[in-house]
Write a structure and sequence with these properties.
Blueprint (H helix, E strand, L loop, with lengths): L1 H67 L25 H4 L7 H6 L8 E5 L3 E8 L8
Antiparallel strand pairs: 1-2
Length: 142
């Protein structure tokens, strides 16, 4: 009976030793992963800062283009902003390139985006020949 108790005690001690060894091995791996996560989080923060800086740079440069021809980017705020102002591949802020509310030609004229009497050409992949209209903004609704 004592032999059985000693054998069982040895099994329990071996299991506890194996458990400790396994915990140490995995704790070491987990610490390595935690360190990698911390490094990646720092890289992400740096990339976010770089992204913000680039977005500000492109907005400034776009504004400079428009200012150089005597117009201000603020003129394009007719649309209702629906997105978070990210930069699109075309360089416009997405709040101006998303689906906007409907505007009247009068609003476009008032914002100096078009002129009353200006010719509008229809385009879908190409300009439609002989298809055009004239902007009439100052007509009263009946």
């Amino acid at each position: 009976m004592l032999k059985k108790i000693d054998e069982r005690e040895r099994e329990i001690k071996d299991a506890m030793a194996n458990e400790d060894r396994l915990k140490q091995e995995y704790d070491s791996k987990i610490e390595g992963i935690d360190s990698d996560i911390q490094t990646k989080e720092e890289e992400i923060e740096q990339l976010k800062k770089e992204k913000e800086s680039l977005a500000k740079d492109v907005e400034t440069k776009i504004s400079e283009f428009w200012n150089a021809i005597g117009l201000h980017l603020d003129l394009f705020k007719i649309s209702t902003p629906t997105l978070n102002g990210r930069i699109t591949p075309l360089g416009l802020r997405s709040e101006y390139s998303g689906k906007a509310r409907k505007v009247t030609f009068q609003e476009l004229v008032d914002a100096r985006l078009v002129r009353n009497g200006q010719t509008v050409y229809f385009f879908h992949g190409r300009v439609f020949k002989d298809e055009q209209a004239e902007i009439v903004a100052n007509q009263f609704n009946s």
